[in-house]
Amino acid sequence: MNTAVTIKGTNTQGVFSLADKSQTASAKGDIAMRMSDDGASAEAIVLPAESLADATLEIINGEYGYVYDLNSSTIITSFKSGYKYTYTIELDTRYPLSATATIANWLDVPGETATVSKDFKVYKPVGEGTLENPYTLEDARNVSPASGVWVKGFIAGYYTGNTVTSFTNDLTDSTKIKITSLALAESPGETIGAKTFPVSLPLGEIRDNLNLKTNPGNLGKEVKIKGKIGTYYGAMGIPDATAYVFIVDH
């Protein structure tokens, strides 16, 4: 079973004073811990931290994810220079995992033991984000952010405003059809805006060939679109499409 442990929201950058050997944190981030060969423990070197507020320990164990709030510990309340800190985490009382955060092997302090329940299920994409095996729309929503990847879906309509709630597939009045974006969906007949995937159409060939105002025949066609997955129209989408290929049934 594959296991990965990450310390999130802890100090990752700082300024060290040679004069008084003090350190001032300048940035927070994530630290991927090094797993043991048997996958039962993990360790990492961390910067000192006076407070563990907003710091968490994320454990991916197979298809499930677990999160332990480091600030909830009553024993380990900070990371001090020169100390070794040990957390023993029991997952669902069935999968024991010992995670060790250490900056030196000089001094041991009392460890923290906690039981953590499942927080989320790890999503496994169906596609690979390539032209040959593009992400599905569900994949795209779960792997975001990602750049330079291919996503496939059916052209289901467009948006009259700047949110997915303005979705429509009404092509009767071409003067109302926006040419700057389109909506992808898992099925060509989708009618619910919240289930669509907005795509920005940049000026040029992509807009000229995909927009529904001048290409109403594109409605219902399946297409692969390449670009960056991120927030667009208040939902997950592609704010900068860079290439496209229609999927033709043979």
Automatic annotation (TrEMBL):
Traced from the root, the source organism's taxonomic lineage reads: unclassified sequences, metagenomes, ecological metagenomes
| Pfam families in the cross-refs | DUF6359 (PF19886), Mfa_like_1 (PF13149)
Looking at the record, the residues that make up the Endonuclease YhcR N-terminal domain are 135-246
Give the transmembrane ranges: none
What name is this protein filed under?
A: Endonuclease YhcR N-terminal domain-containing protein
